[in-house]
Specification:
Order of helices and strands: HHHHHHHHHHH
Radius of gyration: 21 Å
Shape: globular
Distance between the termini: 52 Å
Number of helices: 11
């Protein structure tokens, strides 16, 4: 009788964890729906079919990486450009996954950790790390359901609309991604002068690579990589993040 009650309690707690994860991931899923819609439009405008765009989103959960990849594909870039750009853009996920793996409970086995590594995004990582309790496998499963569904379904809708909507409407909607980037960067620039300086440096480097004749042979894919690496290196050297030391009494 006690064992039956224990099993019932565990199932109830597991279902509670799952529902809490779904609740926490709802807002992320809605946000991903709008961004991935733009990705679907951009992918189709770049020459991909709707199902190719959907396949990319089903096997990747990296908005910046996917948009950079589409840019390289549209520019007929090389495999090396694609590999290096994805490494630079998505390297942070490796560090985030290592950090998040320290917060999971003892039931997180290797297959579950592989799923964690696949589904770990900036927003999912932030939500999971803000959780006071350990991250259980059921909670994480619920947390990623709606973001994954939002990302894939938004890509599907965008890819289909890219073939149906008039070209001028598709082009106009494709500008939404730039608005999203601006919405992310501008508040951070206002709050931190260091970020403002790094953004200006990236803009200057991008203009130099585009307008100076000697650099015009560099493809757009490698131009993104060069700007990202140089700006990050300068920021790390001149504006390092100081480690917070606990006050000792």
């Amino acid at each position: 009788m006690i064992r039956i009650q224990d099993k019932t309690t565990l199932r109830f707690e597991g279902m509670k964890e799952l529902l809490q994860g779904i609740k926490d991931g709802a807002a992320i899923g809605i946000g991903y729906l709008s961004v991935s819609f733009t990705f679907g439009l951009t992918a189709v405008a770049g020459g991909l079919t709707w199902w190719e765009a959907l396949l990319i989103s089903m096997t990747n959960l990296t908005s910046a990486g996917q948009f950079a990849g589409i840019t390289i594909i549209a520019a007929a870039g090389t495999y090396m450009e694609m590999a290096v750009s994805q490494l630079v853009i998505n390297l942070r996920y490796a560090l985030m996954s290592i950090s998040l793996s320290q917060k999971v409970d003892h039931n997180f086995n290797l297959p579950k950790k592989l799923i964690l590594g696949f589904a770990n995004t900036d927003e999912i990582f932030a939500m999971a790390m803000c959780r006071k309790e350990d991250v259980s496998s059921r909670y994480f499963a619920g947390l990623i359901v709606l973001p994954y569904f939002g990302w894939t379904s938004g890509t599907l809708l965008g890819g289909i609309c890219g073939n149906i909507l008039p070209q001028n409407v598709s082009d106009a909607l494709g500008l939404a991604i730039y608005g999203m980037f601006i919405a992310i960067i501008v508040p951070a620039m206002k709050g931190d002068r260091r970020i403002l300086l790094m953004v200006l440096l990236a803009v200057i480097l991008s203009c130099c690579l585009f307008y100076i004749p000697v650099f015009q042979t560099i493809s757009s894919g490698f131009a993104i990589i060069i700007c990202a690496v140089i700006t990050s290196a300068v920021g790390a050297v001149f504006f390092p993040i100081e480690e917070q030391k606990e006050e000792t009494q």
